[in-house]
Amino acid sequence: MSRSATLCARGALAALALGVLAPAHAAGDAAAGKAAFRKCASCHQLGPSARGGFGPQLNGVIGRRAASTTDYQYSDAMRRSGIVWNEQTLAAFLRGPSDVVPGTRMRFWGISDAQQIADLLAYLRTQR
Ligand code: HEC
Q1: Atom 42 (ligand 1): residue with closest C-alpha?
Q2: What is the tens place of the pLDDT at every residue in 5-26?
Q3: Which atom of ligand 1 lies closest to the CA of 75?
């Protein structure tokens, strides 16, 4: 009995893992996003001791109003943008920063790979 019970439990676990992980993967992989964030880390900090440096810190950026951290001097363009960072606005900004915020001080060529953007968003979502 114990052997079939174990197999059965394994099957259930595998189904659970697939059910939980498959959609998350399709939407974006936080581990891959963490690796991709190396592109951002020369200018942006994350984590408990993050502060504004060359760019603003990005803790909890999803759901944040643009230009709302208090220890960073934003460009007028970013201050006046009126953007709230959510999945759509962030994805568009990462694809082409100056298309979304003309005159932004973020000098970044942009990311054209949709999967990489999804991965980055998944990672940023874990950084509250
Ligand atoms: C060369 C430096 C640099 C790189 C690389 C860079 N950024 Fe930025 N980023 C900036 C600067 C500077 C600003 C402030 C822009 C302004 O005030 O116009 C900014 C602003 C932002 C904002 C708006 C933040 C807020 O508080 O409104 C987000 C979101 C952001 N960057 C995300 C990213 C992500 C994600 C990456 C990596 C894919 C990245 N940036 C790469 C310099 C950089």
Answers
A1: 106
A2: 555 566 555 555 554 444 444 5
A3: 17
